[in-house]
Amino acid sequence: MTITTANLSVHRPVKWPRSAALRLTPLAVAALLLSNQAWAQWRVVPTIQLRETYSDNASNQADDQAHGSFISEAAPSLSITGTGPRLKVAASAEWRKFAYSNDDIGNTRNSDRRYQAVANAIAVKDWLYVDTSASGSRQAVSAFGPLPNNSYTANNGTDIRTWSISPYVRHQFGTTATLNARYQRDSVEGGTGSGFGNSLASTGAFDVASGPAFPDLGWNVHYSHQDMSAQRTGKTTNENSLAGLQYRATSHLSLTSSVGYDKYEYSALSEKTSGRSWSAGFIWQPSTRTRIAATVGRRYFGNTGSLDASYRTPHTVWTVTYADIVTTSRQQFLLPAAVDTAAMLDQMLVSRYPDPVQRQQIVQAYIAQAGLPPTLPSAIPYLSNRYMRNKRLQGGATLRGARSTLLFTVFKERMNALSLQQEDSTLLPSQLSSLNEDTDQKGASASADYKLSSRTSAHASLYGVNVKSLRTGVTNDIRQLSMGLSSRFDTKTTGSLDLRHSKGRAGVFDNRDYHENAIVATLTVQY
Questions:
Q1: Which residues pair with 306 in a beta bridge?
Q2: Short-list 435, 439, 443, CA closest to 412
Q3: Among 141, 144, 108, which residue's Cα sits nearest to residue 333?
Q4: What is the pTM of this model?
């Protein structure tokens, strides 16, 4: 029996730089890169949203503990988009304030704030670039409890904040090869009261890929090295290296292969944490509308594979993806895997609106008027300090008619813990220490709208997911259904009326179900 260990410092606090300064770093870098040309196209949209909700179970408690209440909300928000020759920015921020008619209900919040920002800058043309991002959102503490979709509910939710800054160099060696060398500094904070640790990571990576000089036999080389400090697991180091070949067999078919080596540093009992990898596959692209890329192979944790397939028509977009990776909760928060509604609609409208700026504005206006969600929910991300093997199969479809749009996803996800249970000892009690050891999630989501007139649309959404802990047998069967009407009163004002029903497990320590029914009236004004 062998135990591979990382340099653990669970009881020694990690020394953090001033978090406020770190979160402002991306904004400071973006400001330094601004030029007169960068102010070419900027759009600032302030919005105020007023909402009145009646819920018969405002705190998502078990049915015998449910209390009804009117919830009044005021939510100012701001969105900023900018597109210039050297800088692209997309940012939004929202703050919500809640007031309740029933003072007896607990497990609710007085306010909520969420933000998201992404910026891409060209520091030195054709050479040095900078990507930055920051986000703050509500996340589920456990997959075996209510979803924190209602901003006012405190049950099973916590605030997670992330930021990253990544300068990189891109250089082209004529037609021979292209070099990308990147450094990234990122942070994930929040959930400390639930036992989730703050973490700070530095990653260096370089990629070299062949250019047009190799039309039939392409090649690529990748290497990355990450150092991470976490409050719960101490310091860890990960390395990944890969070399690949791509042979063009026909005008539409290419064969691919790769070999590499992975080295992870985490606590594991009698399990490998490093080893060689290989893969073989193909890329088939008979037209600009159809593409299938698939691989099979093996890594240190077992047999693996991948799939990325898409098919597009003037009125539909179909996608199927499969991935088998090593991941962590912090990585999922930095790179969420939810299906982006705007991205799917964008693919459908590429041929009709070739200009990306115009297409983005049309997509955003359509989403707002139709009452579509910004993302379609998939598997539930939850808090864990452990490394996990994540196998995710997901399919999506977007169908758009003359008066309606349907977005649909199905998914299945398996999470197997690779590192030791002790790393989650602050998250889970001893009697449930194996709850997140091996989990399975499967479900589907759908969102549809129908245009009743030039100003009014009907919309509906459905989400269902079954979560099961294969070690403990604990399950959570979540269902959420909403339907309603939205209307545009003028160019800046919209209103909606929705009915909502949801059910699920009341909590990790409470195996009873909760049910909630709500009616929601919303008025939104853009300035």
A1: 295
A2: 443
A3: 141
A4: 0.85
Judging by beta carbons within 10 Å of its beta carbon (0-12, 13-18, 19+), is residue 481 exposed, middle or buried?
middle
Residue 237, number of CB atoms within 10 A of its CB: 14
CA dihedral 10, 416, 164, 275 (to 10 degrees): 90
pLDDT score for 335 = 80
DSSP for 311-358, please give it: EE-SSEEEEEEEEEEEE-HHHHHHS---EEHHHHHHHHTTTT---HHH
Say how far apart CA 56 and CA 354 lie, in whole Å.
47
Q: Which residues pair with 446 in a beta bridge?
A: 408, 462
Contact yes or no for 240/223 (Cβ under 8 A): yes
C-alpha distances in Å from residue 35, one per residue of 44, 93, 269, 404: 18, 24, 54, 43
Distance (Å, rounded) from C-alpha 346 to C-alpha 365?
12
The first and second tokens of residue 515, run together, are 């049910």
Rounded Cα distance, 466 and 479, in Å: 9
Q: What letter would DSSP give residue 149?
A: T
User: For the residues of 282-310, what is the DSSP string, one character each?
Assistant: EEEEEETTEEEEEEEEEETTEEEEEEEEE
The rounded radius of gyration (Å) of the Cα atoms in the chain is 24
Reduce the DSSP state of residue 38 to 3 states and report it: helix
| Tokens linked to 279 | 């893969």
d(CA 333, CA 160): 8
Residue-wise pLDDT for 315-327, tens only, equals: 898 999 999 999 9
Lowest-confidence segment of 115-129, 217-231, 248-262, 327-341 by average pLDDT:
327-341
Which two structure tokens, joined as six digits, stand for 259?
Answer: 């070999």
Please report which residue ranges of 371-481 form alpha helices under DSSP H: none
